[in-house]
Amino acid sequence: MIKDIDGVIFDVDGTIWDSTEVVQKAWNKALAEEGLGYCHVTADDLRGLFGLPMKAIMERVLPDEPEETRDRVAKRCFQYEHDFLRNEPGRVYDGLEEMLRVLSAKRPLFIVSNCQAGYIELMLEKTDFSPYFKGHLCPADTGLLKADNIRRIADENGLKNPIYIGDTLLDESSSREAGVLFAHAAYGFGKATAPDLILNKPMDLVDHIR
Asked: 57: buried, middle or exposed (CB in 10 Å: 19+, 13-18, 0-12)?
C-alpha cells in the first residue's frame, strides 16, 4: 500500500484499452494504398511499438523509407486509425471502468500518452470516460514527450506525490525521469524492472492507494 498519493496519471494503450486489433487494419489499409504493403503490421507488432514516440514508431515500421515518406504515410495511418476506431473502439480492460469510478471519487485522475493529436480525445469519447479525468497531455499539445508531460501535469495541478500507471519499460523510465512513482499495468503489453506497484488487474490500484 502506498500512502499520500495525491493524483494518478494514466497511459492509454496497454493500460486503459487495447486498440491494436483495430489499428492494424487501419494502418495496413494505409500502407497498401501508399504502395508499401510489404510493411504489413500485426497487432503483436503494434503492442511492441505503442508507447514510443510516433516518429520512432514510423521509423521502425518503415526503416528503409525516407523521412518524407514516413511523415506522409503517418498522416494517412493516423487518419484511418481514427476513422476505424470511431466504428470499432478498442477493448477496455476488464474492471478498468469500475476502478476509474471508485478512484476518481478519491483522487484527481489524468492521462499522459506519447500518442498523436486527437487520440486521447477519441478514446475518451468512445469509452465515455471523460467524466473521470481532470486533464490530459500528449506531444501534440506541448511539443514534449512523456516524461516532461508527466512532470507538467503534476506541476500544473499542484501534485506533490502522484503516481503514473503504465505498462512498458518506457513508461517506467519516463516516470523516474519525471520524479514520480510508477505502477506497472502487468495486464498490458510490456514489462517493468522495478515498479513501485504491480497491478495484475485494474482494481488492484484501488487496493494499493490509500
From this structure: buried
